[in-house]
TrEMBL record:
Coiled coil location: none
Protein name, per record: AAA+ ATPase domain-containing protein
InterPro entries: AAA+_ATPase, IstB_ATP-bd, P-loop_NTPase
Sequence ranges assigned to domain AAA+ ATPase in this UniProt record: 185-313
Any GO MF annotation of the entry: ATP binding
Length: 333
């Protein structure tokens, strides 16, 4: 987990507990003012509850004495609830209200994190992913393989697979190997292909699936990434450095579209190198092919990309054109 998340979430629990304590105090005050007789029963319960352990410890106490006191407390509790309900209040009006009853708003059940802690972490991940608004529209169910033609693409006469077969192989790898084994794999992915061949769509689907499984996925276009690297370098932005370096998956979209300078080349190489050394996973998509990478970046960068990433080639007719073509055909019918 990124440092800072733990304390941010624990602080949130603290706030919830303090709000609920305050609410309870107000409810108690209200009952005290309006129905003091109910609070008198409550005071009596408290007094007897303090007596109970003392009684148990005393050597002269019999089991019957303890039982008697227990019964008395039990009866008073019932009397209090009855009184509350008869005045139109809920039986829980004078107890603290937990938003999560499982962990009493502490985030932990014993030493294990409660489900509600995980939900809060996912929310924080979404906030930091850069994808919050986009991802509601993308998931694997909407990934339409039939958009990829199952015949050889005339622009790529040398391809072994049709665009459909190729995409199916990529899709199957992602869905049945990459995602289920995400925490065990150190595979980095390099999606290469022309615009409109499904790279970004598939990246979004992967991001959503992993975020929903509790991983921290951060999405940046190459252009944004270079600006962030400058911010980290010149403004010593530690939080951003931590996020970019230690997230579970960093997605860099459209590598090669950024303005390439000596600074961007060096910083990109440094990031790549650091993440590879730390075993932190990346998914890079680019319109460039392997030879272009060599021209665009320096040798050491392209050799890291080619040597340490699983290269996946995307090709088809432009999907956006294909979608339009289908729409037109449907309208003509
Ligand atoms: Zn909980």
């Amino acid at each position: 987990m990124i440092s800072g998340y733990q304390s941010e979430i624990l602080k949130e629990y603290e706030e919830i507990r303090s709000i609920e304590n305050k609410n309870l105090k107000e409810r108690i005050k209200e009952i005290k003012d309006k129905h003091p007789e109910i609070m008198e029963i409550d005071d009596e319960i408290k007094k007897l509850s303090v007596k109970l352990p003392l009684l148990i410890l005393k050597s002269t106490t019999t089991e019957e004495d303890v039982e008697k006191l227990r019964d008395k407390i039990f009866d008073l509790r019932a009397k209090k609830l009855e009184a509350l309900v008869s005045k139109g209040y809920s039986p829980e009006y004078l107890t603290i209200h937990y938003r999560c009853k499982k962990c009493s708003d502490t985030g932990y059940i014993g030493t294990k994190r409660c489900e509600c802690f995980k939900d809060k972490l996912i929310k924080l991940h979404y906030k930091d992913s850069n994808l919050q608004s986009i991802l509601s529209k993308y998931n694997f169910n909407d990934f339409d393989l039939s958009l990829f033609p199952n015949k050889t693409d005339p622009s790529y006469p040398t391809q072994k697979f049709t665009p459909f077969e190729n995409m199916q192989r990529i899709y199957d790898f992602i869905v049945s190997q990459y995602i289920p084994n995400f925490n065990r794999t150190d595979v980095n992915l390099l999606f290469s292909g022309a615009a409109g061949t499904g790279k970004t769509f598939l990246s979004y689907c992967i991001a959503k699936e992993l975020l929903d499984r509790g991983y921290l996925v951060v999405y940046k276009t190459a252009d944004e990434l270079i600006r962030i690297l400058a911010d980290i370098r010149f403004n010593k932005n530690q939080n951003l450095d931590d996020l970019i370096t230690n997230c579970d998956l960093l997605i860099i979209d459209d590598l090669g579209s950024e303005q390439i300078t000596e600074f961007s080349k060096t910083e990109f190489f440094n990031l790549l190198n650091k993440k590879l050394l730390l075993g932190k996973k990346m998914l890079i998509s680019t319109n460039l092919v392997a030879d272009d990478l060599d021209d665009r970046y320096d040798r050491r960068t392209s050799s890291r990309l080619i040597g340490n990433f699983k290269f996946m080639r995307f090709y088809t007719y432009d999907l956006r054109i294909e979608k339009k073509r289908r729409l037109n055909m449907r309208n003509r019918k």
